[in-house]
Amino acid sequence: MSLFSLDGKVAIVTGSSRGIGRAIAHALAEHGARVVISSRKQDACEAVVKEIDERFGAGRAIAVAASISSKAELQNLVDTTQARFGRIDVLVCNAATNPHFGPLAAISDEQFRKVLDNNIIANHWLAAMVSPQMLERRSGSIIIVSSIGGLRGSPLIGAYNISKAADFQLARNLAVEYGPHNVRVNCIAPGLVRTDFARALWEDEAILSQRTATTPLRRIGEPHEIAGAAVFLASEASAFMTGQTMVIDGGVTA
What we know:
The chain has 254 residues and is an alpha/beta fold. The protein has 8 helices and 7 strands. The protein has a 7-stranded parallel β-sheet, with helices on both faces. The termini are far apart.
C-alpha cells in the first residue's frame, strides 16, 4: 500500500469552499479519503462536493456548513460527520479570520478578539471535539494550517500573525497530550499564496514586487502547492511526525 494512501479515511476540512482548504480537500479525496467540506455557506460547500464527486466518484464528499465562530455549529459539523461516516481520521483546521489590515495600534478590541477566537480557540474546540474517538482508536491526525506570519512580525497583519504563532504552540501542546495515544498534531505554515483571503497582499503591486524579489523561487505560491503537505501529514508517510511545523513559502524564510 502506498505510504500516501488515505483509503478508508474520513477527513474534515474547514474553510474548504475555496483557496487552500479547497485544494487540500481535493488532494485528500484524490488519495482515497472521504471528505467533509465546511465553510460558512452551504451552497459554496455543495459546489466543492460536486467537483469532488465528478472527479472521484459519487459519495466521496459531503457538505456541512459551519462558522468557526460558533461552537454549536462546529459541534454539529463533528456530529454530522460521525453520524454519516462513523469516524473521523483527519481534521484539517484551515479556516481563519483577518478583519484588520494595518498596524496593531489601529485594531479595535472587537477585531482583535475575533482574530484570537476564530484562529486559535476554534481550533482548540475542534481538536477537543474530534480527539476522543481518535484517542480511543489510537489513530488520528490533526493538521492546523497556520502561516509563516507566526514566525515574523508585520506592520500590516500583526494580530493575524500573533494568532498563527499561537497555533504553533497549540499543535505542540496537543502533540504532547495526544502522543501517548498515537494521535498526531502538526502545522503547515504557508507563505504568501494566491487566495482570496490574501488578496489584499498579492493584489498590491508594491507588496507583491517586494515579496517576489525576496523569495528564492521569485514568485508566490498557488493553493495546490500547499495540499501535498496535508496529504503527507494525514497519511502513514508522516507516522513518526508530531508537534512540528512544515514551512512552505518558496524559501522566503530561508
